[in-house]
Amino acid sequence: MSTFWADVGQPRFVASPMVDQSEYAFRQLCRRYGAELCYTPMLHAKVLVSDATYRATRLDVVPGEGPTVVQLAGDDPKVLLAAAELVQEHAAAVDLNLGCPQPIARKGHYGSYLLREPDAIVAILQTWRQHLSVPATCKIRIVDEGSPDPQNRGLQATLRLVDQIEAAGAAALTVHGRNRVMSGKKTGAADWLAIAAIKQRTSLPIIANGNIETLNDVAACLAVTGADAVMSAEALLENPALFSGQSFDPCTLATEYLALAAASPFAEVNFHRVEKAHVVRILHAPMRQLARTAPALDTTSLLSGATCIDDLQHAVDLIAAADRGRPSAADSWYRRHRGPLADEPRSARKDIQRQWLAGGLRLTR
């Protein structure tokens, strides 16, 4: 039986894998405020194997940083094995991405688009189990409702898949309590009861993912699901101190992040895709507040024009000096999908979109 969960300290607070947004500096900030296990951004196995520049700029696990799982995406057992062999010396485990719902995952035949192909999943996990020196884990969603056969959709199909994943030798399982269709504008509440059913079904350590905005949500999720740990993604991007249960000024957190980013061995390697986007997310609420109370301060232009970490820090300092009070909950980055942009005045919608673009963010929600 795998000792993986004990080896990583039986964590309760887990920082999610996020494309371009769970890099070394951000992981360190999250650990500072309570994250006990962190995941790297999703890495494309085929590109990792074939492209030395991609490896140098994306594989950013540093010895001694704390327990870190490297997440890989792909569908070919041989390619995924080659990629896992490249990262295993850096990783507490390798994780198979079975959750990404984006069109690029459909095009690349990975992520949640593999959930209906249990034979392919089993082949990958068995290959890893036979050849790697580190454990293998998976991150899944609930199987979507597309099949006309009720036994091949929803929770029943997911439970059967979990049986196969466990039998194939996975050491732990993260369950995002939404299906593939529930993303972007169709994002809704995660199904904690489905996660509870999965936890009752398997002996694997289960990490629950979805609906986590505050530390109170963590406690509620653990109580409902019986999971071993809780993972946060988007809410952690806005509030990296979420797991601490403490309240911090966003500008203070942004400054801490930038200091860590500047000290990172990967400083500004992916500046326009990583550091800028982090600052936009952390400062999303005060920026929206200032758009109403201090429209003369063009925070979006300050951020979009930044060309280095020092420029970003200058923008943070100006925003901190101009901040006029605590933003409302409706200003939250995490909650943006709960209050549709259509409810905002046209000028406010345009400003929010400009803010996202300033950080290199897509406008899908």
From TrEMBL:
EC numbers for this chain: 1.3.1.88
Domain DUS-like FMN-binding: 15-247
Cofactor(s) this protein cannot do without: FMN
GO molecular function: flavin adenine dinucleotide binding; tRNA dihydrouridine synthase activity
Catalytic activity: 5,6-dihydrouridine(16) in tRNA + NAD(+) = uridine(16) in tRNA + NADH + H(+); 5,6-dihydrouridine(17) in tRNA + NADP(+) = uridine(17) in tRNA + NADPH + H(+); 5,6-dihydrouridine(16) in tRNA + NADP(+) = uridine(16) in tRNA + NADPH + H(+); 5,6-dihydrouridine(17) in tRNA + NAD(+) = uridine(17) in tRNA + NADH + H(+)
Pfam families, per database record: Dus (PF01207)
Superkingdom classification of source: Eukaryota
Gene3D superfamilies: Aldolase class I
Keyword field contains Transferase: no
Keyword terms, alphabetized: Flavoprotein, FMN, NAD, NADP, Oxidoreductase, tRNA processing
Residue intervals passing through the bilayer: none
Keyword flag tRNA processing: yes
Protein family: Belongs to the Dus family. Dus1 subfamily.
Record protein name field: tRNA-dihydrouridine(16/17) synthase [NAD(P)(+)]
Annotated organism of origin: Achlya hypogyna (Oomycete)
